[in-house]
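Section 5.1 Outputs to date
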Amino acid sequence: MNTISYILKERSARRIASFLCINFLFMFVEFAYGFWTNSLGLISDAVHMMFDCGALALGLYGAYMSSWRPNKVYSYGYGRYGVLCGFTNSIFLILVAVCIVIEAIERVLDPPKVESENLFLVSFAGFLVNVVGIIVFRVLHLHGPHVGAVFLHILADTLGSVSVMVSSVAMRYDGMYLADPVCSIMIGILIFVSVLPLVKETSSILLQQTPADLLPHLPLVEKKIRGIHGVAAIHQLHTWKLASNTVIGTAHLLVESDGHEQMILHEVTKTLKTYGVAQCTIQVRKSVAEEGPSSDVSYRFRNDRQWLRTLDEGAVNGCFC
């Protein structure tokens, strides 16, 4: 199934694609009128709308790729493509915000004359277009970093339209041409502040940070696992997010010689899933090793402490036994 087929099949994708077309067409209207009236606020809004279109396109393709099944090359699937789209969009937003503020500061020092006739009507029309986008995303109840990035784009663009409307009234009736760059600075600051949480969320996923909602519970999780009958020790418990709503966990277990491995694995997995860990990979080693192939990790070391020390060294060197 290609991208077009996916959009035609999925109701939410069709609505997002429809809003993308409306947004794309109105972007040219704002660009043309912004250059004609010399309004930095309207040009900034048009540039931001252009990035909205890119964010919508990336978001659509991200949702499409996220639906692909895992394969031999991408064994975890394509869920992180949406995270990558969200991170990319957030970086673009920061660049847009910085460029707008720099240009606006130059205009504050030397405010140009702006033709404010009909500027309010154009900015109001842009406001309505963005309100439609907000309604589309709220009605569909879409989730994910790439969706969050697109929503932030549209929300910041809506605030930008409001800012241009205010500045157009100030210039039209009071001749305050300084209002245009001042409102542009406000747009840039709003964009920058609104995107910081998204940068933090997506970068933490890409860097495989322990999920913030799980981190305070890890000591209790380890305590519960150690309390399972037959578990002697738990080591190298790692949790991270594969995507925005999928948590992966791995751990090394040292179990008593008479411990029932399958029962222990079941209880440990059950405990981890209680705290939102969807996929678990557990390595188990008996406390007293029996004779066996030297290549097997279960027989690699006779001494439990030596085994734990080796795990620590492996973690420091970036590899895990």
